[in-house]
Amino acid sequence: MSNWLPDLTRSDKPRYIAIADLIAEDIRLGRLSVGDRLPPQRKLASQLGVDFTTIARGYVEAQKRGLVESRVGQGTFVRTKTPVGKDAIPPRVRPADLSMNLPPELEDPALIRRMQDAFTDISRDMIGLLRYQGFGGSPADKDAAAMWLGRRALAPPKERLFVTPGAHPALFGILSILAKPDDIILSEEITYPGARFIAAQLRLKHIGLPMDAEGIDPDAFADACIKLKPKALYLNPTLQNPTTLTVPETRRTEIASVAYRHNVPIIEDDACGFIPLHSPPPFAAIAPDLTWHVAGLAKCLGAGLRTAYVVAPSAHASWAFAAALRAVNVMASPLCAALATQWIENGTADAVLQFIRNEALARQQIARDILPGGRFKSDPLSFNIWLTLPPAWTRSAFVSHMRSSGIGVVASDAFTVSGIPQEALRICLCGPISRASLAEALGYIAHSLTVTPEGASAF
Prior knowledge:
Blueprint: H1 15-28, H2 41-48, H3 52-64, E1 68-71, E2 75-78, E3 96-97, H4 109-123, H5 126-129, H6 139-149, E4 161-164, H7 167-178, E5 184-188, H8 193-201, E6 205-209, E7 211-212, E8 215-216, H9 218-228, E9 232-235, H10 249-262, E10 266-269, H11 283-286, E11 291-296, E12 308-311, H12 315-328, H13 334-346, H14 348-370, E13 376-377, E14 384-388, H15 395-404, E15 407-408, E16 410-411, E17 424-428, H16 435-449, H17 453-456
Parallel strand pairs: 3-15, 5-6, 5-9, 9-10, 10-11
Antiparallel strand pairs: 1-2, 4-12, 7-8, 11-12, 13-14, 14-17, 16-17
């Protein structure tokens, strides 16, 4: 049916989603039949008065849902129905990368245009933004950073506030001035792998502390301070990657008390601190003269925005940090910093955060609807879940099975600092994958959990 013409005015969803929805509806109602050829993308774009890319995205979305198939040199056709009964063939799961812990990708055209408009605004000073800037951020960027951090009950002096080229360089700089090779740093026993990689690069001894449902054990932390004399404690206390744990305020106060007693600096990686509307106060508010606060924007605005705001615990510490960071990064990108400032000042950042919250909630609900209850840890606003495997499976066997099926997940080995890794893995729910593709991948995972590795090899 090359004359198929959908009525996009019937939907308030993004147009490419509406196109896929209408294809599904017309197949269900019999307006489109198996083998029907859809109109060429450019022809349909012209008839509907929309961009070619909108039609292309709509057809791709329909293909992801299994509604249509593309034949090279021929066009796009309504997909042949899958046989049922004894002749049925288990459907092949489409590739789905659930290994990268990313925020959901924006789909709201109005919000995307609003973000794009900020590029136009900052480009008016393009020549200035292409020059070398003062280290630590321009006054305008620091003002925006202070405004942003104020939402986390922080009001740092400007001389202790830095705009940096992302959280990783900041963590590298902080650890490089707190510890030297063979010194000991502590963290959660299951922690963010980036911290592990940085510690290894600096040749530090990285030791994990036992955890319970509220975070690291304060008594174990105190005992380690006495026996090991650590140089720092690294924590990812809000929507922790990978366990999704948020440390409650009472436990934060207990940990800070131990750190004060033994004079151990705290490195607070607050990557997801801005996602919850109401979260416990950061360590930088509880122990401001002992805490290095790192507020990256990758999780709350976008991974490509390589910008983070760092608060040093003292003026003296800020001098050392400036020297360490300047040695490897002359400055944060003025373009990225200016874009972040624009979004914060004009409210776009708030709108992006709200979209991320809503989409994370929806995707966590998909996981709860599909995966067996009691098998995984999650938070309604986190971007991932922490899945414990049934006795029949080892993490290596399950990850290998998923990989052979085109699904990427990450075994607990990547996150384990001390001890034997759990038979568990991280499954990410967000990033560029659609809800439909996520549901399909999670359905495949749920089915795999119910069989043995030998049984899984059959499909």
